[in-house]
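Deliverable D5.2: sample structural annotation.
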Amino acid sequence: MVMAMGWGALRDLLVQQLSASIQIIKGMIEWMKYVGEAGKSREGGLVGPYGKMLEQMLNSYFKLLFIILNSLEVLLTTYSRVDARLDAVVPRIDEARRLVNDAARDLSMGSMDATARELEAAAEVLLSIQGTILSNTPP
């Protein structure tokens, strides 16, 4: 049961999920840069199956990010009842989710630059949350 988990185990789980989210975001940004640069070097930009393949891959990563963010929110909400210091982190997860959602919307509208900016902002929020969790001492 989740409530039986100690602070150290909870902190480790949260940090792992945050680290995974940040790495996924960084990977998405790198793919956009790589394919985007290759597309710019061709006439007409990113064309053909590569653009669609990248979009499908990024959409899969977005789904994974939402699963992780939802899991983080459940864990943080559950444990904030036990440790009030986690209360301040829950709204920041919502902020990260909003940024990721905005990035997904930007991608669907064809704006890779805006998608990358939103993802970078989400990564910064997640890094901040990770720092907050790591700086908290056990209750």
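Annotation notes: Helices lie at 7-41, 49-80, 90-108, 112-135. The two ends are 19 Å apart (CA to CA).
The annotation will be released with the project's public dataset once the embargo ends.
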